[in-house]
Amino acid sequence: MLEIKDIDKIYSEGAGVKEISFSSEGGEILALIGPNGAGKSTLLNMISGVLCPDKGQILLHQRNVSDLETKKNIGYLPDQISVSPHIRMLDLLHLVSDYKYGGNYKDEIDKGILNYHLEKYCNEKFSKLSMGTKKKIGILIAFMGTPDLIILDEPTNGMDTHGILELKKNIIEAKEKGSIVVISSHILDFVNSIADRNLFLKDMRIENIAGKNEDLEEIYTRLYL
Amino acid sequence: MTDTYMKLTPLLLSSILFVIVIFIVEPAYIIHINTVPFENKQLIYMLGSLIVLVAFTATMVNVLGETVKSEHQIKYWLVLSRQEFFIYIFLKKIYWYYLFLILMYIVSGDLCKNKFLLCILLTILYITLTYLIYTEKDAAIYRGSRRIQAKQKKRARHKDCRLFRNRPNIELIFLSWKYRYAYPGNLICKAGATGLGIFALRWKLSESTYFLIYFLMFLLFILVDDDYWKKEIANTPLLRSMGIALGKYFRTNLMSGICFYSALMSLLYGLASRSVSGGIVFLLLSMCFVCYWISAYLYIYLSKAGQIEPLKLLLFVVALILEFIPIINLGVGILFYRKARIIWRKASC
What we know:
The complex is a heterodimer. Chain A is α/β, with parallel strands linked by helices. In chain A, 36% of the residues lie in helices and 28% in strands. Chain A has helices at residues 40-47, 68-71, 89-101, 106-115, 131-143, 161-176, 188-194, 216-224; strands at residues 2-12, 15-24, 28-33, 55-60, 63-64, 74-77, 149-153, 180-184, 197-202, 205-211. The termini of chain A are far apart. The model of chain A has no long low-confidence stretch (mean pLDDT 90). In chain B, helix 2 runs antiparallel to helix 4, helix 4 (94-107) packs across helix 5 (115-143) and helix 9 (207-224) packs antiparallel against helix 12. Chain B is globular. Chain A binds chain B through residues 48-52, 66-72, 74, 76, 78, 81-87, 90-91, 94-100, 102-103, 106, 110, 113, 119-124, 128, 141, and chain B through 148, 155-160, 164-169, 171-172, 175, 178-179, 182-183, 231-232, 234-235, 237-245, 248-249, 348-349.
């Protein structure tokens, strides 16, 4: 269970997030929607334990997300993946498997490589890869071992249609296995087709919560335009 | 004030280093060379100069390549000509010029009696060398690297080492060891030191001289490791976000560092001194130094000092001096590790 209790993270006047609270029991897909600078990435960074909130608590199964052990149960795709430019794709995936899961899920890696059509990039340096390919690798890392909490920051950025369809499949599979998936995206159609709850961020707070199949475009227009 | 200080640091550091070199290192080097039983001293100076020149060229290919690539946008924004852009790159990496002068000044010994003329010759050599490297790297941006073009043809191969599939810790050590070879500076330095190490086996020197030679080569190895850490540190945000403890990351790098740096030099020293116990002592001592330097590199690059070149250089010099003082080096090593651990934890809340 994911619990976000009244968290604040303020960088400067109007930048950050304030009084954010929500929870999820599991087996749910949550979407964060808002324009650039609304605080989506800040919130996702805090849920993943990369950033600390100024106030409030974020708990996964009653434990703080910043605990090292809890982090092992979180899969996170940041907006920008920061790794050594020299590392080769397959080595990076094995590195994550070895460090995080004691060498498990290597068959899952092989399957993911085939599903996302990444075979030809296995021996390629990370810095030489395109933005979409980097995202696909980040997705494989985030979904590795199907952790209880999967956080995806703008997963569709730069991704081809094949990748988006495969991602959709992975998200639904993870939900069926009981994972909580938190996504931020600007593509309302993509979000609407998978998310159970849509959280709209405005003025640093959650302004509106929309359910499945609601007219997100109408809500977005009303809130931001 | 801080800005002025930051700008003056490289100048101050270079001046101090230059004074140390002229009055202490170089005379000591010449005196030491004169005690070596070789008839042709000039040959040793020439050989030393050649080795330094090759190692330096390899490092510059890497350094200038990275700079030209990262700063290339400026050439367009400011509509700079090729020569103007070269001057910009040259000034940006000016401390490499000081380093080149200092190093060549030491190894060339009394090859050239007129030191003023030597400085001019070295300057011309440095400018020619860097200009040639710059031209090649600049042209590579337009045409695309030849190496990449060749690789594209065979990149479809899916390379996976089955040997380590069920041995995660060994795979991690192997990966860390493998990526140390990805940097030309490391590779050339290792090849050069190994070649010199094997060549030194033919000399009939005392055990302490052998120890000094191999240990200096081992230290040179570790100092060249900077290239590896500069890139490797980029992996740490991902590892921290996954909840990996610094201890595990440190242990992996320590093991790979021992395999890369200590193993070969200890073997060569054991062969040279014809003593198994001597080789083991060398191995243990070098392991302590690898441990010390990995802590130092981790601290320097995890802290903000890693992003400020003069400050980083200053910390390296301090670490280099302190590593030879017994007990103090142990304390400093532990201090570096503890500081790195605090930063590691703080960044992940």
